[in-house]
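Input set for joint prediction.
Command: fold jointly, output tokens.
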Amino acid sequence: MLKLNKNDKEPVYLQIYRQLKEQIIAGELSTDERLPATRALCQEYHLSRNTVLNAYQQLESEGFIRSKIGSGYYVEAIPEYSRPETKTAPFFFPHETDPAYAYDFRYGALEPNLYKSAGFRKALREAVNELQKKDNLYNEEPSGLLSLRQAIAVSLLETRDMHVSPSQILITGGHHYSISLLQKILPSSVRTLFMEEPGHDDSVATFYQAGYEIVPIRVDDNGMMTDKLPAGKTGIAYVTPSHQFPLGAILPIARRLQLLKWADGCSGYIIEDDYDAHLRYKEQPIPSLYSLDRNGCVIYLGSFSKSLSPDLRISYIVLPASLHLSKDKDLISSPASTLIQLSIERYISLGFYKTRIAKIRNLLRKKHNRIVSFFHEHYGERIRIFGIGGGTHFVLSLPVRMKQDELLSFFRSEGIGVWPIEPYYLQKDEVPEGCILIGYGGIPSEKLDEYLDALKNVIDKLNRVGGTN
Amino acid sequence: MLKLNKNDKEPVYLQIYRQLKEQIIAGELSTDERLPATRALCQEYHLSRNTVLNAYQQLESEGFIRSKIGSGYYVEAIPEYSRPETKTAPFFFPHETDPAYAYDFRYGALEPNLYKSAGFRKALREAVNELQKKDNLYNEEPSGLLSLRQAIAVSLLETRDMHVSPSQILITGGHHYSISLLQKILPSSVRTLFMEEPGHDDSVATFYQAGYEIVPIRVDDNGMMTDKLPAGKTGIAYVTPSHQFPLGAILPIARRLQLLKWADGCSGYIIEDDYDAHLRYKEQPIPSLYSLDRNGCVIYLGSFSKSLSPDLRISYIVLPASLHLSKDKDLISSPASTLIQLSIERYISLGFYKTRIAKIRNLLRKKHNRIVSFFHEHYGERIRIFGIGGGTHFVLSLPVRMKQDELLSFFRSEGIGVWPIEPYYLQKDEVPEGCILIGYGGIPSEKLDEYLDALKNVIDKLNRVGGTN
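tokens >
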């Protein structure tokens, strides 16, 4: 028995299909039972033959019935089965947003907004126009668009003193993707990561998840204490030599050479995470460690997050000649949209990239200088600032004896988003008291003074409530 | 001694910096040697004080010299070091392009070109405008843009009968990214993949690289032979139930239920790779396996490669309620550009997505029907076509006794790009003779007849040179 309604928005053939399917699942039509002949059904319900045939063919395609030529349609043997209850799935992974702060000193943001730039819009338009001309759009280059890799190679030569062939460059879908990919490329015998302490927590996490042994190497005012690297133990040293994250030191030439010697001596590798080298405010960008390497042990990680926008999700790896992709094995397909890759290439090639970097550097230099002089003026030597000279963040050492949690809560309850440095330490007992991280990359320049006053209010309050050294 | 040229395009302070640096590296200035006083240098070369200070400060920042207040600048102890020879890096990973064929039946392409669509341009414009309004662009949602996940949830309900919360959806940077991520989410105790034989080679590779045991399960005319799954052995079954890749079968309801029962019995999982379910030409899309699952064992893999464009590199995972991301551990940052995610969301929400799918389906249906009737007309039963009814490719079984390599070379030497099926087999002795894969998704409709005639010429030639059954 079918209940068909020709006025329903559901086509009649789908009504037939659905009802017969339900009957088969419910066992109301049993295995090997013959369905009504299509002609009979047409007559009974005043339907066209095609309507019935469409319904039967759909049921046959899905395996509910089979047709026997000249004999009709029969119900297939279907294992007993009860449908899942239709319910909205539980919201088991809630969308956690960080609370909004009136004054948010979050790290990672970048002003000005790339999407406001006429240059980026032009680059995007050109990219769409170019892609539009293609007959076929495949995902052909797992290592990334050749034209983008060429543009990066030129830029690295001009700005980082690196002589690199485009074939050494792999475009990836962000920093973690770079590290995950690297783990496939590095010899599987090398299983130890010598990590800056404090250092970039997400990078550590990516190695830790992959089963690497993580050995912290302390950072002092000159970056990683390279003399603490155990000679002869093969491993990978992870460094941010141009601007130590998070403490801001520049690794001096002597330590750089020591590091290279160490890697050469133990047949190890060095990962140079060059996340914001272009953001120096007093001097020229520090030449890359990669450019000093004679032995092919430095792997260079670059990114557009601190020059274009963090939400583009485009990073890249420069492999030394000693390492290379096994095309079949390591990278099956590119993780980066061709449109975005091509837009970045156009943006670089049209000259907008250089202009933007100069603009960002000037903007950030002003903010940087303003913040430094603000603290000097109000607190003199009482607040120590780590990271003067570059980047988009500082670590402030406040003259208070409070644990991280307490300290953060105190600021945050006053609407000030400041950030912990505890995540960057592997050895939690090494975390210094009274330190907070403040990012200024995204704070609108015209509001900086307002932000600083708000921050100062809470610091002064903190001093009054006690906890001061 | 310095050689300074004020007319050089290199600023004088950089000339000083560079020359002193070379002298220190070369040992011409020795450790603890005092550099000329800045005033003396100014007088000698008629320079401004700032020029010299800039050079000295850069050297100090990089650790070549140190300053002593009131006393001047001294050379630091630098380990002995010889510069790397500057040479262009070898092109060690050459850019391999597949040779171009006059008639290329490559799988994976899609007509019409998304970038020609006014709808996509509008969606892209809206996305740029929306991003432009943001004060700060972070990369905040590792699981993907909430609005896109919402749009996908709605679309899955409408088209795949799936009741899914956006929180179950993870946006990824393509199919392999999905699988790599899944490997982190699946319990590490489950280490066996039961794979369709033949099946999707890149998916196998991704599991194989991660150390999974791969067990082939044969595919017949009805897809995976689910009765061959070993009862009680926990594992992951990888299936393409809507359209078996590459042979094209639809997994019948009885096997679907058997598969679910198997997974339930062994506490295993099923990966439903739903890569082109929307491309059915006779019947409605086959309901998803996910929609039948009562026990939360089906993981659904979706993609925009066969509906928008393969080069967007956006795929997604739908997790069953039994599995979920550990936010700290599994996915640190999104691999997908916000601009692309937002453009796709806009494209869906503005209604263009549905229109495009209908358009693609009609275009492909015509090509599909033309190809099938062409072969029937010319070869009748002599050429068997696998995969009639859906998708963007066929497997042709030609009446020849030739190995894959020979067969492909024969076609390719005549300018016809046809593709092997051998990569899809784990057991190479199972590869049937005389089979080739042809894709038609990207062949321009108006040129299809020309392509088919060219293909026919070579098939006929093949028959003449022998090798025929």
